[in-house]
Q: What sequence folds into this?
């Protein structure tokens, strides 16, 4: 059976990720990429849908105690089982790939003698397809259609009921390596990796990457683990960052609010960029920026809210009816129909992210500026239209307050760009007028005097946590009485058991087109931390932040939401937006200024002056870049 979401860990190779339970069972793995069909799907079903477990023989009854931890600041996972006869350790990792994706598992005898059992069930295409298996000494092959996997081993496997089983005994000081690899079925399996060497290289890679973190505040461990998680969710060939490694983990157990998060959301752009730069990871931030530029290129009137890891646009949604869902939470959705929605806020996210990256570099790309001008050209009238909103509601389109605020952000960043880079061309005065008009309308129609707060949409009396972004994006200063009243109203109306809801769901589904409740949205809770700090209530902000940090599992991971009634993490896992928000809040509370990371005269400025679009190799180092004309911002300091 599947475990609680907080009992899982993640390992990955910067192309995909595996979800590993406390019981040392890999219950979810998509190969060869994040958004590929899964070959292990027990996370959303049962044993018949695929998993790979290594554990003491006799199962839970034979286990006295279990521990799991990451090796240092890495994604090398160690799970230890104590039994009556000894202790055994399982080391799991996915080496940073050169070509094929590998999963390395090493069983080590720590003390005494432990009888072990392996149960492997590969099920391609989200648990539906049973492969054809062939076995020779030390090599097991499984093939179906275009997919094939090979398992190199030193045990004696047997086939039973469409599972591959093996029993073996490990003594103190003894080890059994397992190398699992995916490859196209028309090719021969690649040779096995040396498990000991692969684990060592993987651990070294992650520890060296984590050592580059520049944050030195009181929550360094939480920040570093969050940044590692963010890196693990990065599709290295393009720099895109997926929202999570999973699909359809429910927002409440047994509910139907289950979505596919293995894609890249534009709404995350600015906050993700800021968190990476705050952590000192400028190259990763610029890779994300470059992915953003490529993904949104084209007809800006057809800008999507999300794209595939390589910038794919077609993300058709369908349901895997044969999967019973996580703890019975159906449907299991593959793809995401929200990709076809109109969300006005993404224009603001894109403009803000491009502005922030250019500001940090001290340079501007003419090609990127041409795209930005087209975005603003569309917004000159597009901002007046109703949209589907940041939460991707499936009810009627409305004039959502947050969407209008982000339209203002888009125009504001365009105005500031022209003011700071006078050599660029653009209708500055017209844009100033447009910015003023949007600002005036939002203040008149988005603020409800009776409620005493900015509300969900024009004319609404309902609260929405997205308006917490108003001071964070600079629409109004935190000292503005309307901002203070809004923060206080959200504290009273949207805080449930100490954590923030996105909005109050209703059984009639009039706003979001859905029924049933959801958990507290963790990113929104971090936004409240930021706002409390900005309005001078730093003690309250720190107390809320500590409660949020305490929700992480014992490996430092967060999902999308927390259900205070069930006392459990819910939603897709691990969730990039939750970890991004944790990093940003920690930096704000501790006074860690991202601008100090990359000064106007720093090495990154000199290095990227003549480059705009990155092409990154497998180990995350710059390999080559496409040249683009840039314009240097006048003056050396940031205004």
A:
């Amino acid at each position: 059976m599947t475990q609680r979401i907080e009992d899982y860990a993640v390992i990955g190779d910067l192309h995909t990720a595996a979800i590993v339970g406390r019981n040392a069972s890999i219950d979810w793995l998509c190969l060869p990429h994040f958004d590929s069909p899964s070959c292990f799907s027990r996370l959303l079903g049962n044993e018949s849908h695929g998993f790979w477990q290594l554990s003491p023989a006799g199962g839970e009854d034979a286990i006295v105690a279990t521990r799991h931890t990451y090796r240092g600041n890495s994604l090398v996972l160690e799970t230890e089982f104590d039994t009556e006869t000894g202790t055994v350790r399982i080391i799991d990792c996915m080496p940073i790939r050169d070509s094929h994706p590998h999963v390395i598992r090493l069983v080590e005898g720590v003390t005494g003698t432990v009888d072990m059992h392996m149960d492997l069930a590969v099920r391609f295409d989200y648990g539906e397809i049973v492969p054809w298996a062939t076995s020779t000494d030390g090599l097991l092959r499984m093939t179906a259609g275009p997919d094939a996997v090979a398992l190199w081993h030193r045990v004696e496997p047997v086939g039973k009921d469409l599972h591959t089983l093996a029993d073996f005994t490990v003594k103190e000081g003894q080890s059994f390596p397992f190398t699992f690899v995916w490859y196209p079925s028309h090719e021969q399996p690649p040779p096995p990796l040396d498990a000991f060497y692969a684990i060592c290289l993987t651990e070294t890679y992650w520890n060296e990457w984590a050592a580059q973190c520049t944050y030195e505040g009181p929550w360094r461990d939480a920040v570093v683990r969050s940044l590692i998680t963010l890196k693990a969710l990065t599709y290295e060939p393009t720099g895109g960052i997926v929202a999570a490694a999973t699909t359809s983990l429910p927002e409440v157990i047994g509910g139907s609010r289950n979505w596919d998060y293995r894609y890249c959301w534009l709404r995350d752009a600015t906050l993700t960029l800021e968190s990476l730069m705050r952590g000192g990871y400028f190259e990763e931030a610029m890779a994300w920026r470059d992915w953003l530029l490529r993904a949104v290129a084209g007809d800006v009137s057809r800008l999507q809210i999300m794209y595939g890891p390589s910038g794919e646009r077609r993300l058709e949604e369908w349901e895997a009816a044969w999967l019973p869902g996580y703890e019975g939470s159906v449907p299991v959705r593959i793809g995401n129909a929200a990709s076809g929605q109109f969300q006005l806020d993404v224009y603001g996210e894109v403009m803000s992210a491009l502005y922030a990256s250019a500001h940090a570099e001290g340079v501007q790309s003419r090609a990127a500026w041409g795209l930005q001008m087209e975005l603003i050209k569309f917004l000159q009238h597009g901002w007046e239209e109703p949209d589907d909103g940041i939460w991707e509601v499936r009810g009627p389109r409305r004039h959502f307050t947050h969407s209008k605020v982000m339209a203002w952000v888009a125009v504001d960043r365009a105005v500031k760009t022209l003011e700071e880079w006078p050599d660029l061309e653009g209708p500055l005065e017209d844009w100033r007028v447009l910015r003023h008009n949007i600002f005036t309308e939002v203040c008149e129609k988005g603020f409800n005097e009776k409620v005493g707060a900015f509300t969900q949409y024009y004319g609404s009396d309902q609260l929405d946590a997205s308006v917490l972004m108003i001071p964070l994006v600079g629409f109004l200063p935190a000292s503005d009485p309307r901002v203070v009243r809004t923060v206080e109203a959200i504290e009273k109306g949207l805080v449930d058991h100490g954590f923030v809801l996105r909005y109050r769901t209703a059984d009639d589904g009039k706003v979001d087109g859905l029924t049933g409740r959801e958990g507290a949205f963790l990113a929104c809770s971090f936004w409240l931390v930021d706002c409390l700090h900005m309005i001078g209530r730093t003690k309250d902000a720190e107390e809320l932040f500590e409660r949020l940090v305490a929700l992480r599992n014992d490996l430092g991971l967060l999902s999308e939401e927390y259900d205070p009634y069930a006392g459990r993490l819910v939603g897709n896992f691990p969730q990039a937006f939750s970890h991004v928000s944790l990093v940003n809040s920690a930096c704000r509370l501790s006074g860690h200024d991202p601008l100090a990371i990359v000064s106007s005269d720093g090495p990154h400025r000199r290095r990227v002056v003549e480059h705009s679009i990155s092409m990154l190799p497998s180990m995350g180092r710059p390999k080559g870049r496409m040249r683009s004309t840039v314009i240097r911002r006048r003056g050396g300091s940031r205004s």
